Amino acid sequence: xxxxxxxxxxxxxxxxxxxxxxxxxxxxxxxxxxxxxxxxxxxxxxxxxxxxxxxxxxxxxxxxxxxxxxxxxxxxxxxxxxxxxxxxxxxxxxxxxxxxxxxxxxxxxxxxxxxxxxxxxxxxxxxxxxxxxxxxxxxxxxxxxxxxxxxxxxxxxxxxxxxxxxxxxxxxxxxxxxxxxxxxxxxxxxxxxxxxxxxxxxxxxxxxxxxxxxxxxxxxxxxxxxxxxxxxxxxxxxxxxxxxxxxxxxxxxxxxxxxxxxxxxxxxxxxxxxxxxxxxxxxxxxxxxxxxxxxxxxxxxxxxxxxxxxxxxxxxxxxxxxxxxxxxxxxxxxxxxxxxxxxxxxxxxxxxxxxxxxxxxxxxxxxxxxxxxxxxxxxxxxxxxxxxxxxxxxxxxxxxxxxxxxxxxxxxxxxxxxxxxxxxxxxxxxxxxxxxxxxxxxxxxxxxxxxxxxxxxxxxxxxxxxxxxxxxxxxxxxxxxxxxxxxxxxxxxxxxxxxxxxxxxxxxxxxxxxxxxxxxxxxxxxxxxxxxxxxxxxxxxxxxxxxxxxxxxxxxxxxxxxxxxxxxxxxxxxxxxxxxxxxxxxxxxxxxxxxxxxxxxxxxxxxxxxxxxxxxxxxxxxxxxxxxxxxx
Length: 632
Known about the structure:
The protein is an all-alpha fold. Helix content is 67%, strand content 2%. The chain is built from 30 helices and 2 strands. Helix 11 (201-213) runs antiparallel to helix 12. The N and C termini lie far apart (113 Å).
């Protein structure tokens, strides 16, 4: 693990104490060793021997009857009490479970059950901690306390108790559901609005909620809830649907393989919810990505990044910013890449809010990026602002940048302003003639993922805005490859917005992909048109109908051409066959004539056979003389 990620985990460790994993399951005693283990437990307080002997009797209890069963239970009580007192957390959990349900020779006693579970937790048993969390969540013998439940679940999860991780996912799910209000719409209306075209994400989420709780005459069905939430996420690009689906999947999936397809599906839903700005998804991702949970560093980085944007902190912004700047995650199922745009936005937030990492931000402004070119103006603006706040490193770097670039050219929009405010100022500049200053900021906002900037810039380029300032001779400067292809950049700007669920952008992408494919059917444009329909883009259904009609007309024309070519081929073949046969006969006739001439010409006459039979024929003179002489 890299040093950067070690520091991330160390910081998180302050909030979630990393504790030793619970002891792994031991082999139970055998018929030959159980008496020795019993003795070691009772006489030497050997808690391992206690557990092995306990497991031996527990495995045979169901098949035992009468006095034998009673004897097993008596031995199990002694073994568990002795082992728990000797520090075996798992046996303390067993005692707690037995008191909670009144089984295995113990009376039902919720107070004792909680005491033993807490003792197990203190001894490092993750399942014991999870049991304590469950008691506080349900209010079983104690007042309901979600905060205490969370504390124990996270403690259990950090100990390697996977139940704790899953219980916490389910608790967060329930808490999240409590915050979502129901509308006045009927179930029939909601189903209509969650149809396959023009999807309403909120309607899909409400249907999922009703299925989850069995409300409004909907049957209680978590599987159906998952389907509705997934539809709201994948098709309607609705953040709440992503978060709810992710939490439900991760609370209900076996964690023995954290990277199983089902677990990855849950993580991907959370990832998308966080990308769409849903803070609960980001919060849980920081827990879920830990090595003792679902173990994915990219998930931690994305969760911290989402928290940085929603509720900035020094740790979240600097750590996620540096992680996305410096590392790739090629093995990640989400196919993570060098996310320099996320890095820039996170570090800018850290600089703006806490005057930290400002030199890193300024250095990024000096480099060419996707959708934009390096900007000395904005780099100097960042350093100047940080310098005024007492950042000595920013002051020194500012002097260096001024010396290297010649200083500010013209004027600039303060890069330390809020992004939405910068967008409005840049838009005003472009529309009022200050094209260079407005374009400079608008391009950088688009690079950092500002959706309105991406859309505005794409439309502006379509309407003739140049990608850079022309020189005195009317020529563009040498542009970085990421900016030089204007048509490609327009497409990528629309595509970036479409992936966030912007209907108009999705429609633009669909039309572009269709015509770029020269009207040939392909998955790319079909998917793009489908996405535009799912998002309810204006004209998407009509465009789809026109594409289908046009494709049918082209298909019919191609079929007619093929049929015509087929008929032509048949006629050509027939003509060729007749010509070939005639030529063969002509050649045969010619050979026959040549042979007759060589044999003295042809003679015709009557051939006399046996009896009175006769017949007329023609043959070569040589044949008549040789075979029919006297009979011809």
